[in-house]
Amino acid sequence: MVLWQGTNFTVDGHEPTSAEEYYRIGLHSWNSGQHPGAEVYFLEIAAARGHGAAIELLGHIDYIQGRYASAVPRLRHSSGSPRSAFYLASLYHHGCPQAGIVESLDEAARWYHASAELGEPEAMIVLGDLYLERLIPITRAPAEHALEQFLAAATRNHPYGQYRAAEIYRTLYQDNERAAVMYQTCVDNPLTARHALGSMMTLQSQAQLREIAAARAARRLQQRRDAVNPAQRRGDYY
Fold first, then answer.
1. Closest Cα partner for 187 from 210, 169, 216?
2. Closest to 81 measured CA to CA, from 44, 117, 126
């Protein structure tokens, strides 16, 4: 066993010996939150032995806890991770003097693209906004680029990607039917309630769905009027 601040740690009942076993202890400590600080202690042992997942997780911990100077080399080492690439993109997007990173939208876009290609939906959403604002090179209409990114995030079950795709369909393409599908998907998505903008997305999506349903009903009534009272006969009565 390994003693850390009065607590004994083992793996399957024995003392950890390999990088993987130290990583497993560190990962469990991080996920459980039961022994704050233990995760870094054990992950650093694994990382010193070249364990890639331990280095990636340490970069994540450093980043979300604001230790950017120590996070950056770990993020660069783990740049094949969608999460690490996204963090690097964010640092370049806003600049980070603490880590010696100068603001650069070109570098940010490069890392956002790398992260999106690895499957990170948050990167796809940021790229969609950058395309809409024409802050990165475009080869077609900004809305086409943006919708492609939002739909890619939506297919990965990201509620904000679903909501933004619906908004693009409704406002820029005037395609209420496709918008309704995305709005409904966002409303039905269990992850929406856990998103920081969950309440707004739910309320706005429900409101748009009501308006789209009302427009559908109005069209059906008008089609009925046109069918039972053809245009050529209306002059007899109006």
1. 210
2. 117
81 class by beta-carbon count within 10 Å (0-12 exposed, 13-18 middle, 19+ buried): buried
Q: Looking at residue 44, what is its pLDDT?
A: 96
What averages of pLDDT result for each successive group of 10 residues across the chain (238 residues)? 86 92 96 94 96 97 96 95 97 96 97 98 98 96 98 98 98 97 98 98 98 96 88 62
Q: Is 121 helix (H, G, I), strand (E, B) or coil?
A: helix
Dihedral of the alpha carbons of 31, 36, 38, 44, in degrees to the nearest 10: 80
**Residue 193 burial (CB count, 10 A):** 11
Cα distance between residue 162 and residue 151, in whole Å: 7
What pTM value is reported for the model? 0.89
Helices (H), the chain: 19-32, 38-48, 52-64, 68-77, 82-94, 105-117, 121-132, 142-155, 159-171, 176-188, 198-228
Q: Which residues, 6 or more positions from 165, have their beta carbon under 8 angstroms from its beta carbon?
A: 147, 150, 151, 153, 154, 182
Burial of residue 107, with CB atoms counted within 10 A of its CB: 0-12 exposed, 13-18 middle, 19 or more buried = middle
Distance, in Å, from the CA atom of 224 to the CA atom of 189, rounded to the nearest integer, reads 35
pLDDT at 230: 79
**Is residue 220 classed exposed, middle or buried when 0-12, 13-18 and 19+ CB atoms within 10 A define those classes?**
exposed
